[in-house]
Amino acid sequence: MSFAGVYPVYNLKFKIGTNGRTSETGAMKTIAELESFSLSIDGKVEEWNSMDQEGWASALMTGKSLSISLKGKRCVGDEGNDYVAGLAWKNGRDCDSKLEIEFPEGAKLEFNCVINVTNVGGGDSTNVAPLEFEAKAHGKPTFTPSPSLES
Questions:
Q1: What is the domain range of residue 49?
Q2: Whole-angstrom Cα distance, residue 93 to residue 2?
Q3: pTM score, two decimals?
Q4: What are phi and psi of 28, to 5 degrees?
Q5: For the chain, which has fewer Cβ within 10 Å, the N-terminal or C-terminal residue?
Q6: Side-chain half-sphere of 147: how many Cα atoms within 13 Å?
Q7: Stretch (H or E) spanning 42
Q8: What Pfam families does the record point to (predicted)?
Q9: Which residues of the chain, if any, have pLDDT below 70?
């Protein structure tokens, strides 16, 4: 794939595992009508002050967490959208799934997650019904760089 330069955010593809964490390729479905997303990586950094550093702090990244907030419209009849919306009424392991993000240059981010649906229909009477949710990573994600950008 030949890709260079900037790109609009709508070129990203989000897929949800409609069979939960056991989802294989055929069960990974795009989620229709997404409008925006925010990716958050939270690094856990431990700091300490050794005598031999004369008061200067040392630091080490000891852990990370990943979460993605997604907002869009409720689209009845779309497999991915219906699956996510249905998780609003579930709890425990029933909210476990897999998420994939495909980037325009060919890179891919994949991870097991917990889906927390935060809005599935609220708003003014003249609004289009929303679908808003957060995907919190469960364990280490897999990031596959674009084959065209590896050196």
A1: 9-144
A2: 40
A3: 0.87
A4: -85, 110
A5: C
A6: 2
A7: strand 34-48
A8: Phage_tail_2
A9: 1-3, 149-151
